[in-house]
Structure formats: C-alpha cells, structure tokens
Specification:
Elements (H helix, E strand, L loop, with lengths): L20 H52 L3 E6 L4 E6 L11 E4 L5 E5 L12 E5 L12 E5 L5 E6 L6 E4 L1 H9 L1
Antiparallel strand pairs: 1-2, 1-5, 2-3, 4-6, 6-7, 7-8
C-alpha cells in the first residue's frame, strides 16, 4: 500500500497557471512604454534635487561656520568664488597660518553661484566675496544679503539673511530680492 504524496488535486488544473511568451512580451512592452513616458519628468526631479541639495549644503556650512566661530572664539570666513563655482569655510586670516579644519566645496554639475551684495559687502584678499561670522555668533554687517544658486534661468535657490540678520535661511526669490533692496 502506498500513500499519495504532494498535492492531491487534479493534474489538469496546473495547465492554465503558466505565463505564455506572448503575455510576458506584452508586459515588458507596457513597462518600456511607461518608463519612456515618465523618464523626462524623472530627470527633472533628479535635476531639481541636486539644486536643493546644494542649497542645503551651503546653508549647513553657514550654520557650521557660526557654531565654529562661537566655540573657537575666532571669526570665521565663508568665502564664495563665483568665477570658479566654489565656496568654503576657514578661520579668518591672521589667527592661524593654516586652518586644519578648513573646508571647500565645488558646485554640482550645471550649477552656478551668484552673490547679491549690498554696497557694503566685504571682499577678501583673493577678491572673493565672504560671509563673516563673529565670535559672538552674529553675522558681520559687511556680509552679503543673499546668495543665489542657479541651475537655469528659471530654476534657482536663494539663501539670504534672516529677518533678524543673525543667520541665513533658504528663501523664496521674492523675499531674497526684497532683502537685497533694503
């Protein structure tokens, strides 16, 4: 006497369960069509993410510069080189020959940086615009009012002084331009 093993269902019920080659090809064709339609909007999404990431990195560097100025008791300079698309943070020259904690960043691909200065904006010795953080945690009055990171004519992020002038924040274009007129 032998006992049946496995599923005791009728073997004929298994015939309709597999996908045919034609069904698989139809599904693959539909996937390719959907990807082809959504690819342009996905590329715009990722392009916008790089602009947003760069603006947040710049803003983080302003906060780090302020914190470092307070904790070390030394003025910090966040320099901006618009010609080369770079920016960085270092101790103000004259306090240390070489700042071991100095950092510099290059802008991402297809990004540009511009500084909206007031008439009193400070230029460093290398003819770069600078944001100066003082040891008491404030931002120097000679620092620029706004920085614009631009990807195209219509796509940009603005980092400007807050209303109280004690820090920087990401702003919309209208707010940044109003601050620049003050």
């Amino acid at each position: 006497m032998t006992l049946p093993t496995g599923n005791s269902r009728n073997k004929e019920s298994h015939c309709g369960r597999a996908f045919t080659l034609i069904e698989l090809m139809l599904v693959m064709t539909m996937l390719v069509a959907v990807i082809a339609v959504t690819m342009p909007s996905l590329s715009n999404f990722f392009r916008g993410r790089s602009l947003d990431s760069e603006a947040r990195r710049f803003l983080s560097l302003t906060r780090y510069g302020q914190e470092r100025a307070v904790s070390e008791g030394v003025p910090m300079t966040l320099w901006i080189d618009t010609a080369n698309g770079t920016y960085g943070l270092q101790e103000e020259p004259g306090y240390n020959e070489n700042d071991p904690k100095a950092v510099s960043f290059g802008l991402g691909k297809d990004l540009q940086i511009a500084v909206v200065n007031s008439a009193r904006a400070q230029q460093t010795g290398r003819s770069l615009t600078a944001i100066r953080f003082l040891p008491d945690g404030s931002v120097s009055e000679t620092s620029p009012l706004s920085v614009q990171i631009r990807q195209s004519e219509n796509d940009s992020a603005w980092i400007g002084k807050s209303r109280n002038g004690l820090s920087y924040e990401i702003q919309n274009q209208n707010t940044a331009l109003q601050n620049a007129r003050r």
